[in-house]
């Protein structure tokens, strides 16, 4: 799910007009539809983070329908269990499991990864979907800015901790849910720890830019392993990610809700990257909400910036000292 994370423009009419134009553009139907994709995932294991609602839940539902062992990685036990029960009932797939994960906590990420490595023999698809928007600036007990930790550093650590299992299961795929808003983001490494306070309206966009940079650098490092990684934009989607934003922005998007994509429609580009034959072997790319290859921003294509971000992320997550197990 992705939406502009804040707004201070005084002209609501202009904002509403621009929003409707954006919604019109992102609602256009792509040539690829999940229901027409015959991919069967029997014998495969997938993980979807943030799978108790919105896009993540629709992605998990689709993968469970394809007979995958589907792990819902959720922060809330109550909401995650409800989603797992609903998906099991809808698909008839008994192998829909809840595992607790808060990507905003590196300790939680490590505990989750240890459990997966202990319990699972393979991992064929990892979907890094969990994210939030609109929260005020705050630093976690681990010394990380909370939105950067949740949307970027947590998924960075999780993916790295599960890489050996992904490689052993190759061909395997990593799917990073980014946003068209990545083009408005910037990379200031001091923002990751709150040493410098970012502008609130840029935090979400910057985390999504980091998702694309991470994707490109990871793809470079994984060449020849059989593990692919791609980033995508789901479009403007009607989910609950804006619940932490201020009331003017929530009101604006509530009015525009009927024009937005549903969570089911918004999940299409994620599912495309996860299971489609067309995406097999494709890596290091960015897909638009129409499931087609798109050119990310100039900053997102900066290989030097991607390497610098990777090195700092390794340091902040403790990976710089060596591979964690």
TrEMBL record:
Question: What is the name of the protein in this document?
Answer: Retinol dehydrogenase 13-like
| Record keyword Signal present | yes
Q: Which domain of life is it from?
A: Eukaryota
Which source organism does the UniProt entry give? Answer: Apteryx mantelli (North Island brown kiwi)
* Keyword Oxidoreductase part of the UniProt annotation: yes
- What UniProt keywords apply to this chain's record, in alphabetical order? Oxidoreductase, Signal
The signal peptide, as residue positions, is: 1-31
SUPFAM superfamilies the UniProt entry points to: NAD(P)-binding Rossmann-fold domains
The family classification in the record reads:
Belongs to the short-chain dehydrogenases/reductases (SDR) family.
